[in-house]
Amino acid sequence: MTPQEGQDFFETYLTRWNAQDLEGISDLFEEPSLFVLPDRSIALATRQEALALLTLVFQGLNADNFEASRYASLEARSAGGGLAVLDVAGVDRLRKDGSLIETIDAHYILRRQAEGGWRIISAVVCEPGWRRG
Predict the structure, then answer these.
(1) CB atoms within 10 A of CB 52
(2) Per the confidence metrics, is the pTM higher than 0.70?
(3) What are the tens digits of pLDDT across the range 94-125?
(4) Which residues, including other chains, have CB under 8 Å from residue 20's CB and lie 6 or more apart?
(5) Residue 49, phi then psi, degrees to nearest 5
(6) Following CA atoms 34, 117, 3, 43 in sequence, which dihedral angle do they give, to the nearest 10 degrees?
(7) pLDDT tens readout for residues 13-64
(8) Residue 87: enclosing H or E segment and its boundaries?
(9) Contact present, 89 and 103 (Cβ < 8 Å)
C-alpha cells in the first residue's frame, strides 16, 4: 500500500461513514473481519453481521446528534505479502452543532484482494495519543 492508496482508501471509507452508507462501509470489510474495542472484540463472520454492528453504532451516534467525522492525520504502510497497516489519528466525531462527541485513534489492518482493491480485516479503536506511550 502506498501512502496515496491509503489516503484514497480512507477518504472513501470516511465519505461512506459520514453519509451513513452502511452497505458501502461494509463493502470495505473482508469476510470475516474483526473489530477490537477497549472492552471487547467483535468477530464478524458475514456481511450481515457487519451491517448489524454498523446499525447499532449509528443508532448510538445518531442518538447523540451525530453529523460527521474528520481526522487529523493518516499513515499507511505496506506490511508485505499483500497486507497493509493504516493508522488514523485524531478522529473527531462531531454533532450537528459542531460540538465534539469523542476523539479516537484507529488502527486498521488491510489485505489486498485478488482484483487489486483493499479490504479491512481488522479495525482497532485506540485511545488518542497511544503512540506516545
Answers:
(1) 14
(2) yes
(3) 999 999 999 999 999 999 998 879 999 999 99
(4) 58
(5) -65, -40
(6) 0
(7) 999 999 999 999 999 999 999 999 888 999 999 999 999 999 999 999 999 9
(8) strand 83-95
(9) no
